[in-house]
Amino acid sequence: MNVSALQKARYGYTPKLPASLSRDLANIALKPGAPTEAVGDQEELKRIFKHIYGKPVITFEAGSNETIGRPLTVGVILSGGQAPGGHNVIAGLYDGLKKGNPGSKLYGLLGGPSGLIENKTLVLTDSIIDQYRNTGGFDIIGSGRTKIETPEQFAGAWETAKKLGLNAVVVIGGDDSNTNAALLAEYFLDKGSDIHVIGCPKTIDGDLKNQHIEASFGFDTAVKTYSELIGNIQRDANSAKKYWHFIKLMGRAASHITLECALQTQPNICLVSEELEAKKWSLQQVVDYICDSIVKRAENKENFGVVLIPEGLVEFIPEMKQLITELNDILAVHEKTLLSIEGFKEQIDFLGPKLSPASHEVLRRLPQSIAKELLMDRDPHGNVQVSLIETEKLLITMTQKRLEELKEQGVYKGKFSALGHFFGYEGRCAFPSNFDADYGYALGFSAFVLIASGQTGYISSVKNLVAPADQWIAGGVPFTMMMNMEQRHGSKKPVIKKALVELEGAPFKAFGADRDVWAVKTSFLYPGAIQYYGPPEVCDQPTKTLQLEHPKK
Q1: Are strands 483-488 and 473-478 parallel, antiparallel or unpaired?
Q2: Are residues 270 and 363 in the same domain?
Q3: How far apart are CA 426 and CA 59, in angstroms?
């Protein structure tokens, strides 16, 4: 197999483990805390999760563990979108199993949860694992977005688990995937089975975190990759001095990526969806905010700059959110009729009476290209595909129009040339940073310890992430502790609560303290590429978000 020099070198990198996982396995004991409660809707969740609700938080400490050396057969699933470090979670799980007992077996369940439902597997071996250590991507076994939710799907998972003789299933995924893992754990126990289910927190979006899950693996690498690209563009902008760059970044449900990239690069403008929603800003107010910076910089003869935009922005602007909600409802009934109508004006005329007057006016005022994107095919859940809306182009078009008005009024005398970018896939499968390589590996190894110790209904946890890796604290957090009930597709369902950007949190406050200066004065930072070799202060540092949320004591 042909490999790059870096890929070959990364195969040989030895991830760092917390001290609690580095000792002899027979001396890793579990220390349970007090029983836990869900973050909301406790009584309803108790009824749904009769077996796994209320489990204690677990940490590992020195002690005796008599069960950890027994042979185990485990299936592992990659679920949802890719995130750097996923291969290392599997490597950590595999190494733990083989260290516990060389006779243990790890099945890769191919293509996501459907691999468990349909019994599509690959036996993972030393030679396979060694090809993927410390590398990006999910190509070792593939991923998928199938949810195990129907009686037939649960029955299929049950049959596969029995046929393979599984002692446990490990689900590597985000909030929805780990909610699914919790339901699977409950289902197995309801069947009287001792098949354990353990989750691992994965998402580049950064929205699966809480007091015990300080970060999800993949976020660190993704934001460092995007920040390198943003820094490169900022250097170019400061050199050419003639373009405004509007950069959309991944993160539909939360703005953690955009905020972290702003802290790393100090752009002129960073829009945070959660703040705009709290302020109830209209789309025009967002445009006016951008124009204010452009006008002030033009007065300093700086007709260039950088604007960071979270992917899900339009869903946080009240007027746009209302329009999208109404369109989703209308198209759920009239999509075929709408698509049969030729001509965009005729489509708008058809929708007009079915929309509220306010939403009809918003749709009418949008640039035609963006309005057409709102009417495109829905996702499998019947919702607008927000990632396909070119928000960066929308803001460029509206900004240009507003600047022309300001020029006619004599307020603006600069030149405005803009370029749009979307950074998304560039960060999902990058070579994991040392942090994500270490963190992913520790999560996988911790998942093994939980399984070997007879635990189910937990998500693998590694805390104290701002400290050196040997001081990290490994253990497990109950799925149900992170849950509440939310309205999904017409009914209330249990879900792990998403973590949005907290406007009173330290990262946003740090950003807020300096952004007015960045808006006018060129203050760009240039993070450069991720470094894998060199001093720890260059190679092993966690994100600004982690450092601000969990300052060293």
Answers
A1: unpaired
A2: no
A3: 35
Tens of pLDDT, residue by residue over 362-393, are 998 888 888 888 887 666 656 677 777 899 99
Please give the distance of CA 84 from its chain centroid, rounded to a whole number. 11
Mean pLDDT computed over 13-42: 97
For β-strands 196-201 and 269-270, DSSP reports them as unpaired
Give the residue from 151, 132, 153, 149 showing the smallest Cα distance to 141: 132
- Residues in the chain, overall count: 553
Average pLDDT (522-528) is: 98
Please tell me whether residues 187 and 80 are part of one structural domain.
Answer: yes
Q: What is the Cα–Cα distance from 96 to 19, expressed in whole angstroms?
A: 14
Q: Are 90 and 126 in contact (CB under 8 A)?
A: no
Q: Which of 445, 465, 488 is the last residue of a domain?
A: 488
Instruction: Give a yes or no: residue 398 inside a domain.
Output: no
Residues marked active site are found at: 205
The one-character DSSP state at 343 is S
191 and 339 belong to one structural domain = no
510 domain residue, yes or no: yes
Residue 533 has pLDDT above 90, yes or no: yes
pLDDT tens-digit readout, 247-260: 999 998 999 999 99
Say which CATH number the domain at 413 has: 3.40.50.460
Q: Do the beta carbons of residue 432 and residue 440 sit within 8 Å?
A: yes
Residue 1: pLDDT over 70: no
* Domain membership flag for residue 26: yes
Sequence-separated (6 or more) residues with CB below 8 Å from residue 45: 38, 53, 480, 483, 484, 485, 494
Total tally of structural domains belonging to the chain: 3
Distance CA 162, CA 201 (A): 26
* Distance in angstroms between the alpha carbons of the first and the last residue of the chain: 47
Residue 463: which domain range? 5-218+432-488
Model pLDDT, residue 379: 66
> Has this prediction a pTM greater than 0.85?
yes
Average pLDDT over residues 14-22: 97
Please count the other Cβ atoms lying within 10 Å of the Cβ belonging to residue 242: 11
* Domain end point (choices 389, 420, 454): 389
Q: Do 98 and 154 fall into the same domain?
A: yes
Q: Would you say residue 493 lies in a domain? A: no
* pLDDT single digits (tens) 92-113: 999 999 999 999 999 999 999 9
- Residue 389's pLDDT is 85
pLDDT tens, position by position, 184-202 = 999 999 999 999 999 999 9
3-state secondary structure of 370: helix
Encode burial over 326-339: b for 16+ CB neighbours within 10 A, e otherwise.
bbeebbeeeeeebe
